[in-house]
Design a protein that fits this description.
homodimer; alpha+beta; elongated; DNA-binding
Chain lengths: 342, 342
DNA sequence: AGTTAGCACTCTTTTTACCCGAGTGCTAAC
DNA sequence: GTTAGCACTCGGGTAAAAAGAGTGCTAACT
């Protein structure tokens, strides 16, 4: 769609002031904002055309204009300067993330930082473990019948859980367990290590089958945990501050808390950075919200997603670079820590 | 304070219907609820006296009555039957909690269950580790320069973290570490193992000091983590459903998210079950809310707190037993798992 | 032909006025 | 001590009126 330069300037000005104020913007107030000097009547004419092009909407006849979804789209794709993220914000992000070797902790910090920085809700998913393999399994006895299982994946993910055995744990039993796991499980992809596979494995162990089964089952659960990308949500409360979301606040919160549909949205995201504006997503509860989602990659492989959720009138020009910067950073850090552990 | 039997019945009826409806209750509607048959005029007289006693309030001259804080207090202390928790709810709680050996997981499940059951926000704190000792320290190398540290406390708490060393990790180094930790650290109270102590310890290790310091520092951090009671909050969104809290929803959420002041309230709680009604606590943000807090004990020792936060018109008669039941259950389960691990 | 001033018109928001009803407090009778 | 009766109060709801913001259109201007 070709737009005259003046129309572009007007559209941009409307989007930006609407983002700032949240109120429909009228022709008069635009005069002060626009770089050129034209009368309000001229602006009105232009605005009328922008409406018929579908880029603006009016809530009602005698109100100012509000960007339509298409209007935001156009703004994002053509008008918005791709500002670099300012040093200030970058510093904040880096300070907030700190340095950890633990991917889950890293992601959780990244989520919090993002929510803080953007004053929106932040979603984050842990790196997918789909292609990951088991790198190591450890048992740490913590009682006569309980032990902690530790699973380390090739992706650097570490999972542990406490496991209660039916029999007293003896040294030979542990040795047998190490034996079995290191020959049969280490190096196998996570998806191979499911509960039924463990049952057959246990069955082949003869006398120890009964004693070892709880541990093997525990390993299966850890593998499942590790393979599953879990989805975090931070800063939901930030959303309560936006007037336009207030009305459906409860519904929105519940929707986000559920996680299922969010997951669907996220796994749909094939682009580098994806922006979903208002009704562009299929969920009624999100029709007043926008999402900015970006993938991060670990070791050159697309791996997880970070993003923000806020009202439709997000400050895209600032947030898109923020999200992009953060995903880059997270990707780099995770890649480094995986390399380091190999 | 002595109240005639009729006044007691009237107060109880007002509290109960107000809890149910959330609307000020008038003399006429009380006639239907009260067990005895008296005219509305009589009830009005009694209500007027209850107002001057400070047990009821009226929002404005021509409205019904609403219980004051003192009214709730009186109701809770004298009028409310201590119903046993019904089997249904007990079953739900037990099912939701399941069985884990991990205290943190247990608490988190308990919190969720409580929030679900009561339709309020639930707070929970992990068992205090103040008097706990280090029972075991393990290192699991996960890369050439990284390892996972595992700390087990006498309270059954398990903490782990990834730790990056400055030098390549060698077997002799690990042996040295085991040696040092098992002789110097295991058995010591958590509070002894702080960062500066670790620095002095490292300094005494001669050549290995430099290589082992990161691990010892890691142990110190784990000890700090384990000693610190962290505070969880579940089901905040439930609070959005209450009309009377809607107005300050954002403020309330932020207040709860912060955690600091909640912590203060909780650690103030010396009673078995403590009920804080509206302004009885000093925080402005909670003046429209009530808290029910109860301690659980592990191995006969007061240890942590569970509780709910909701609007002032909580169904105390149901919730107090719920919270009490849950704390008992959590206490029992934790005690059992600690015993088991010894 | 594009731009602008002017103005009538539209639609929302705010204000004002009003009535209604729920509920009270009081008085006087039971 | 209890109850019926009644005047009174005050918030909530509704309708009408006024205010305001902004538009769309026309006619004049450059």
């Amino acid at each position: 769609m070709e737009l005259s330069e003046r129309k572009q300037k007007i559209l941009a000005a409307i989007v930006e002031t609407y983002i700032r104020t949240g109120e429909p913007v009228g022709s008069k107030s635009l005069m002060d904002v626009l770089p050129m000097k034209v009368s309000s009547a001229t602006i009105r004419n232009e605005m009328a055309e922008l409406v018929s092009l579908g880029l603006l909407e009016q809530p009602h006849t005698s109100a100012g204009r509000v960007p339509s979804h298409a209007g935001y789209r156009y703004y994002i794709d053509h008008l918005m300067g791709t500002r670099e993220l300012d040093a200030e914000s970058r510093r904040k992000i880096e300070a907030a993330i700190g340095s950890t070797g633990d991917p889950e902790e890293l992601l959780s910090k990244a989520g919090e930082a993002l929510a803080d920085l953007t004053n929106c809700a932040a979603v984050s998913t842990t790196p997918t473990g789909e292609s990951a393999k088991i790198r190591r399994i450890e048992v740490v006895p913590v009682g006569s019948r309980t032990a902690m299982l530790v699973l380390l994946t090739s992706g650097g993910l570490l999972k542990s859980r406490i496991c209660r055995a039916d029999t007293v744990i003896t040294v030979p039993l542990l040795e047998r367990f190490y034996n079995v796991t290191s020959t049969q499980l280490v190096g196998r992809p996570l998806s191979d290590v499911h509960t039924t596979a463990m049952q057959t494995l246990a069955a082949s162990l003869g006398a120890d089958a009964f004693s070892l089964l709880p541990f093997l089952a525990g390993v299966a659960e850890l593998a499942r945990d590790a393979a599953q990308t879990d989805i975090r949500l931070d800063g939901q409360t930030n959303l309560l501050g936006y007037r336009e979301l207030e009305e459906n606040a409860y519904e929105l919160m519940e929707f986000l808390r559920n996680g299922e549909p969010l997951n669907a949205l996220i796994s749909n995201n094939k682009d580098d950075v994806q922006v979903l504006i208002g009704k562009e997503n299929k969920y009624r509860q999100l029709e007043r919200s926008s999402l900015i989602l970006a993938r991060y990659s670990v070791g050159g492989e697309e791996s997880g997603t970070l993003g923000v959720i806020g009202p439709t009138r997000l400050d895209y020009a600032k947030l898109i670079p923020s999200v992009r910067y953060l995903t880059d950073l997270v990707g780099r850090l995770l890649t480094r820590s995986v390399r380091d552990e190999e």
